[in-house]
Automatic annotation (TrEMBL):
<comment type="pathway">
    <text>Purine metabolism; IMP biosynthesis via de novo pathway; IMP from 5-formamido-1-(5-phospho-D-ribosyl)imidazole-4-carboxamide: step 1/1.</text>
</comment>
<dbReference type="GO" id="GO:0003937">
    <property type="term" value="F:IMP cyclohydrolase activity"/>
</dbReference>
<feature type="domain" description="MGS-like">
    <location>
        <begin position="1"/>
        <end position="144"/>
    </location>
</feature>
<dbReference type="InterPro" id="IPR002695">
    <property type="entry name" value="PurH-like"/>
</dbReference>
<dbReference type="Pfam" id="PF02142">
    <property type="entry name" value="MGS"/>
</dbReference>
<dbReference type="InterPro" id="IPR016193">
    <property type="entry name" value="Cytidine_deaminase-like"/>
</dbReference>
<keyword id="KW-0511">Multifunctional enzyme</keyword>
<dbReference type="Pfam" id="PF01808">
    <property type="entry name" value="AICARFT_IMPCHas"/>
</dbReference>
<dbReference type="GO" id="GO:0006189">
    <property type="term" value="P:'de novo' IMP biosynthetic process"/>
</dbReference>
<keyword id="KW-0808">Transferase</keyword>
<dbReference type="InterPro" id="IPR036914">
    <property type="entry name" value="MGS-like_dom_sf"/>
</dbReference>
<dbReference type="InterPro" id="IPR024051">
    <property type="entry name" value="AICAR_Tfase_dup_dom_sf"/>
</dbReference>
<keyword id="KW-0658">Purine biosynthesis</keyword>
<dbReference type="GO" id="GO:0005829">
    <property type="term" value="C:cytosol"/>
</dbReference>
<keyword id="KW-0378">Hydrolase</keyword>
<protein>
    <recommendedName>
        <fullName>Bifunctional purine biosynthesis protein PurH</fullName>
        <ecNumber>2.1.2.3</ecNumber>
        <ecNumber>3.5.4.10</ecNumber>
    </recommendedName>
</protein>
<comment type="similarity">
    <text>Belongs to the PurH family.</text>
</comment>
């Protein structure tokens, strides 16, 4: 009679599966809690201790770790020597291993239990059973997921076998299961940002229709190590599934608005902001961000760092917007926007706690990994390097421009008042071209009399951008500094009566 070893933490559907295996001619072997629930449900079961002749030991830490179990699993059925050794030692082959593991993820990452309790949830015997059965998949069926119980039974012939290809797929799934399990443990013990061996644990959330372009396949995966607020904890309230590009732009927009304590709005297209505004209320913040570049705002992503109200929803509805992201939506505001069939509404809970720690970019054969550019900058250490000191309005305008510039693709030039972007030059190969683009976007930039700021994500290599800025009415500049021509740049600012700050920090973005 064929043998099935069942040892599961999650008892979902296990009674029905065990009964189905018995109907297919299997004898059930089990342990601990699984043995108890099966016997309580009138399933005939052999206790593993009766099979091995050894009791469970050291508070259940040792149950199945025994030659009579592992030899029965690992023996090759077409190897005469293996079969003879089993007979000589009175060991029966085990043909199915059904096993899932202690809830390490739940104890370590969700419940945040003390370390001693977390250690008790590191499964030893279960992992060993799964790996042994998966290694010998040609002869042994390994089942680690209750969703596969029906697959096994429905494909089982009268001899209790299933097709080899299904066995192989189940083995692959089992190795994946134990690999992820081990990676969770490694990550729990590790606190290095950039360790020598970097383990990534990702679980597919869903397939998107396509990637950046229709000919590219794509899916979105969740980092299993990360339980913080993120897109994966957000809630889509309305609209069709987000696209690959939607999600990319959503994250850029969200990262901008959480830079500010005041109500703020960011409008993003193709991973660059086309408008950012801050105010004392979210309606004005949206209006300020929209007028920054209304042409580019067509078909954009709108992110807010405050609850969406009726007034703002009505204003957004009058424009073509792909996605609206906010910490919450007033009921009436939701009703207003949900009348638009194709708009997506995303409730991003606890939005200020959604900062990522690392940025990963794949390259052929490997990965580039860096800390996210979320450094805290104390503006008290910024240096005024020109003869003229900035006014309070200019200081605030530069501070605002600098926070936006870090989210713009390099080379980045951002022109702002102290409450909204006026012109953004993004992604140009030379800084002077970015400066020219920002000024072109700004139009009559000199008409703002409260001090117009220019932020540059990197230093100015030549004075040409300063000369151009002066002609456009820019009165204050903020940049990292660090060029061999810093003195030339400072002299140009003094000539034009422009005040300038050096931050000492660069914000390239690729």
């Amino acid at each position: 009679m064929k043998k099935a070893l069942i040892s599961v933490y999650s008892k979902e559907d296990i009674v029905e599966f065990a009964k189905s295996l018995i109907e297919k001619g299997y004898e059930i072997i089990s342990t601990g809690g699984t043995f108890k629930i099966l016997t309580n449900n009138s399933v005939k079961v052999i206790n593993v201790s009766d099979l091995t002749g050894s009791p469970e030991m050291i508070e259940g830490r040792v149950k199945t770790l025994h030659p009579k179990i592992f030899a029965g699993i690992l023996a090759k059925r077409d190897n005469e020597k293996h079969i003879n050794e089993l007979k000589e030692n009175n060991i029966n082959p085990i043909d199915i291993v059904v096993c899932n593991l202690y809830p390490f993820y739940k104890s370590a990452y969700k419940m945040h239990l003390p370390e001693d309790e977390v250690l008790e949830n590191i499964d030893i015997g279960g992992v060993s059973l799964i790996r042994a059965a998966a290694k010998n998949y040609k002869d042994v069926i390994v089942v680690t997921d209750a969703d596969d119980y029906n697959l096994v039974i429905s494909n089982m012939d009268e001899d209790g076998n299933i097709p080899r290809e299904i066995k192989k797929n189940l083995a692959k799934k089992a190795f994946n299961y134990t690999a992820i399990y081990d990676s969770l443990i490694v990550n729990y013990f590790g606190n290095e940002i950039l360790p020598d061996n970097f383990i990534i644990g990702l679980k597919k959330t869903f397939d998107v229709r396509y990637g950046e372009n229709p000919h590219q396949r794509a899916a979105i995966y969740k980092d299993i190590f990360n339980n913080q607020t993120s897109y994966f904890t957000s809630e889509q309230l309305h609209g069709k599934q987000l696209s690959f590009n939607n999600i990319m732009d959503l994250e850029v927009a969200k990262n901008i608005v959480i830079e500010f304590d005041k109500p703020s709005c960011a409008i993003v297209k193709h991973a660059n902001p086309c408008g950012v505004g801050i105010s004392n209320n979210i309606f004005d913040a949206y209006k300020l961000s929209y007028i920054s570049d209304p042409i580019s705002a067509y078909g954009s992503i709108v992110a807010l760092n405050r609850k969406l109200d009726i007034e703002t929803a009505s204003e957004i509805k009058s424009n073509f917007v792909e996605v609206v992201v906010a910490p919450d939506f007033e009921d009436e505001a939701f009703k207003i926007l949900s009348t638009k069939k194709n708009i997506r509404l995303i409730k991003y809970n606890d939005i200020y706690n959604s900062k990522r720690e690392l940025i990963m970019k794949s390259i052929p054969g490997g990965m580039l990994i860096q800390e996210d550019d979320m450094i805290f900058e104390d503006d008290k250490i910024w240096k005024v390097v020109t003869e003229r000191e900035p006014t309070d309005k200019e200081w605030n305008a530069m501070k605002f421009a600098w926070r936006v510039a870090k989210h713009v693709k390099s080379n980045a030039i951002v022109l702002t008042s102290n409450s909204r972007t006026i012109g953004i030059g993004a992604g140009q190969m030379s800084r002077i071209d970015s400066c020219e683009l920002a000024i072109k976007k700004a139009g009559a930039v000199g008409s703002y009399t409260g001090g117009t700021a220019m932020a540059s994500d990197g230093f100015f290599p030549f004075r040409d951008s300063i000369d151009m800025a002066s002609k456009a009415g820019i009165t204050c500049v903020i940049q990292p500094g660090g060029s061999i021509r810093d003195k030339e740049i400072i002299d140009a600012c003094n000539e034009h009566n422009i005040t300038m700050l050096f931050t000492g920090i660069r914000h390239f973005k690729h």
